[in-house]
Design brief:
This is Arsenate reductase ArsC. 41% of the residues lie in helices and 12% in strands. It is an alpha/beta fold. β3, α4 and β4 form a beta-alpha-beta unit.
Length: 134
Amino acid sequence: MYFLCVHNRCRSQMAKAFARHFAGNKVIANSAGVEESQIHPLTIEVMKEVGIDISDQQSKRIDMKVFISSQIVIKLCEQVNEKCPIVPFGITNVQWDIPDPTPKQGGGTIEEFRVTRDLIRENVLQLLKEHKVV
């Protein structure tokens, strides 16, 4: 599973962490962004609230080797759809349009991050169930 968003600072980081948390070693979960950034501090904080420590994760740009070797590519926002390489035939292409809680001019509220976290958790669990992982 390859979770993609624009900056790899919030949504895709959360999705990767939830996939690893719920599926353990049953899946290989990675995340990346079209543009590299820094993980937003509130991303780390709201994940700690649910018992998942992502403080050691790093923001990364899309790695084409990981991209083409993934069985499922999950795009967490519409913007990444426009900038992302075309998903090759044979790879499941999933689109989630989850709002970015990190506004361009400063940070969003912790409540916005919590809403995003909870929505991503639901989507990841549903995806894992659809693919009979959990």
